[in-house]
Amino acid sequence: MNSMTGEQSICFEKPPYLFASASVAGKKEGEGPLGEKIDLICEDPMLGEENWEKAESMLQIKAIQLALEKAGKMPQQIRYIFAGDLLGQLIATSFGVEELEIPLFGLYGACSTCGETLSLAAMTVSAGYADQVLAVTSSHFGSAEKQFRFPLGYGNQRPLSATWTVTGSGAFLLSAQKSHAKITGITTGKVVDYGVRDSLNMGACMAPAAADTICQNLMDFNRQPQDYDRIITGDLGYVGQTILLELLKEKGFDIKKQHMDCGIEIYDRKLQDTHSGGSGCGCSAVTLSAMILPKIEKGDWKRILFVPTGALLSTVSFNEGQTVPGIAHAVVIEHC
Q1: Beta carbons of 322 and 191 less than 8 angstroms apart
Q2: How far from chain centre, in Å, is Cα 273?
């Protein structure tokens, strides 16, 4: 049986294993610090398709195919897919995975979706409802700018607080079959709203949610920051990182030595002109597959807390003058 832990967490008595993963990304991501570690770099931002949305669907398909190939599995062996993206009605996902004919749970947690898919997939495998499950997320700079901000041809200037949406996808095969990394617990985040209205400063929107979830995880599992080799947020960037560290200090936790952010790791701030860093569903997913999991599988890191972060806005809510709430979901991943 799984154990409900504290107020918002689960400790898996039968931990599901991260059996295989794959990362696919665009040219800009390939030129960054993780470029050599990403499985497939797509030089063409359109991926041979006629629009950004179809290109993003192709990112997901390629990531899934690579993950299945690594695992030696066929699509018909997969019980469920938990997947999502940033686009309205999850069109990158629904049009992307339809050819696989695998039962789908479409999920939206903004840029925190990787944490949400992994959490629900882990619960499903641990509870015995499936032996093989895929967790997949994606984002695309072109499709995100088109939906949330301005068409690329407009050439608008971005403030220094803005992040750059990652063109990329990560696919993860969770299994009851043993491997070198396992998910031992999760902490599901709450919607946290500090009243920020600037959609071009998503780090400030998401940092309070990240602080809330990290604090709750430490309390629920009765741990200190040093019990984790790394505490890794999804895409707070440089602005959000500063806010997160201050908020957690106020709560009595100093995570400066343990903290990393996927949005900071995926781009070179000086050479790539991404301002505050990276963001998007693909940001944490690509970084997890390309950089984080290999370190866990090798035993360089014994236990990490992976905390993808999301800004819960839409074009409708923004145009109506609403605030931008945040959410963050934490996943405990350990070497085995």
Answers
A1: no
A2: 22
Q: In the chain, what are the helix, strand and coil shares in percent, each to the nearest 5?
A: 40, 25, 35
Residue 141 makes CB contacts below 8 A (sequence gap 6+) with 26, 28, 45, 164, 165, 166, 167, 280
Q: What is the mean pLDDT of residues 46-69?
A: 94
Q: What is the pLDDT of residues 184-239, one digit of tens each?
A: 999 999 999 988 777 677 788 899 999 999 999 999 999 999 999 999 999 999 99
| Other beta carbons less than 10 A from residue 193's beta carbon | 16
DSSP, collapsed to helix, strand or coil, labels residue 111 as strand
Q: Is 72 exposed, middle or buried (0-12, 13-18, 19+ CB in 10 A)?
A: exposed
Which of residues 203 and 152 earns the better pLDDT score?
Answer: 203
What amino acid occupies position 322?
A: Q
The model scores a pTM over 0.70 = yes
Structural domains of the chain ordered from first start: 3-175 (3.40.47.40), 181-335 (3.40.47.40)
Q: What are φ and ψ of residue 21, in 5° steps?
A: -150, 165
As a whole number of angstroms, the distance between CA 203 and CA 153 comes to 25
